[in-house]
Amino acid sequence: xxxxxxxxxxxxxxxxxxxxxxxxxxxxxxxxxxxxxxxxxxxxxxxxxxxxxxxxxxxxxxxxxxxxxxxxxxxxxxxxxxxxxxxxxxxxxxxxxxxxxxxxxxxxxxxxxxxxxxxxxxxxxxxxxxxxxxxxxxxxxxxxxxxxxxxxxxxxxxxxxxxxxxxxxxxxxxxxxxxxxxxxxxxxxxxxxxxxxxxxxxxxxxxxxxxxxxxxxxxxxxxxxxxxxxxxxxxxxxxxxxxxxxxxxxxxxxxxxxxxxxxxxxxxxxxxxxxxxxxxxxxxxxxxxxxxxxxxxxxxxxxxxxxxxxxxxxxxxxxxxxxxxxxxxxxxxxxxxxxxxxxxxxxxxx
Length: 350
Description:
Layout: E1 2-4, E2 59-65, H1 70-76, E3 86-92, H2 95-104, E4 109-112, H3 116-122, E5 127-134, E6 140-144, E7 160-163, H4 168-179, E8 188-191, H5 194-203, E9 208-212, H6 215-223, E10 226-230, E11 238-244, H7 245-248, H8 251-273, H9 275-286, H10 290-299, E12 303-305, H11 309-324
Helix pairs in contact: 1-8, 1-9, 2-3, 6-10, 9-10
């Protein structure tokens, strides 16, 4: 198993680097699910399973980030050694840079929030949503720094707000502003990745910061930040596993992705009933205090769900909101960026 990490997750996170070598080999327990679609314009409604595919020699390049903690989650659940293929893990500060790497061919699959697939699709990336998670609304928040006089979203008019461009926080912020009768033109958006966003908030360079777990719990628990709103009533209730079209077109990699989705679904189900154990492992992986990660584990708890019409409609609403706000230049038909062939894997978490 190989891990690459050249990005800082948070101001207080440990930098992980170098190579971790190991062999995860086996035979896929699932059928090939390779999509025949070669372009985003082709609908990926599902693929016809074929004979069992041996994935022992497959190396799946998996994107990871602090907000998803896929490697740590699988480790905590005791499932990391059940991956029947080789893995090359790569860390990213958020979903958008992960999907940029996916577009360049260096990542096959990875977990992101609701907005990164929209921006990737608008940019013409050859990607598809292959798995969904019902996200916990407490895993998102718009924060103000300790001692801030701001007590309502309406008071942010004319203020500076940090957010990672194209992230789930970007959409969360958009819905928060809209419900308060504000638009992105009524504030100054400062596009920063999580580490810089935290530094900007605590130093007073911005008036607010929209962010997700575990960064929001870090800011609250260690720096005294306060939430104006959480995800309750805002944003989108879903996060996603996204795969490159190139990986889906490869029968062996598609089979490996199916196995990965099944194990991730199991791991999320396990974490929801073993929060303290999961928090301890996640704390070790991030370098953040256990007190912070205990709250993050509870706030971020998610369960795998099939990609239904409701999920597809929700993601279309995310896309349309960015188009209406002028934050992406085109309208995206998101039905062309969803592959439901892996829906049965969600049952592994039930």
